[in-house]
């Protein structure tokens, strides 16, 4: 598996994954978004020093994304999305691990957090296996998890 930084050329692929009903169900924003909205968002992400977005590929085929958003100095929130066609193949742990590896190689990171929808048992299990621990009760339906990076 290999994580590469996303580019504007990934816009169509990322939009299709973002608008997938199961992806929206687990997201903070559940509305379908337009190509124009998504393109503006992606340009902002790519230009921001406070966000890093990776496309993770398996044998050259994109299977998911991992995004890191700065919360504080050395503290970043991670988000993961699997391509709909990649679900059920046991790839989520490898996608998350590869995103973390790529990110921590190039950035100063002390802590990685995650917000997991309380009804998303698969995501909760993924982050639990990856060493994240719950830090606070659910807020707005999302559990806050935390992992210290050594």
UniProtKB/TrEMBL annotation:
Domain N-acetyltransferase: 1-150
InterPro entries listed in its UniProt record: Acyl_CoA_acyltransferase, GNAT_dom
MF annotations from Gene Ontology: acyltransferase activity, transferring groups other than amino-acyl groups
UniProt name for this protein: N-acetyltransferase domain-containing protein
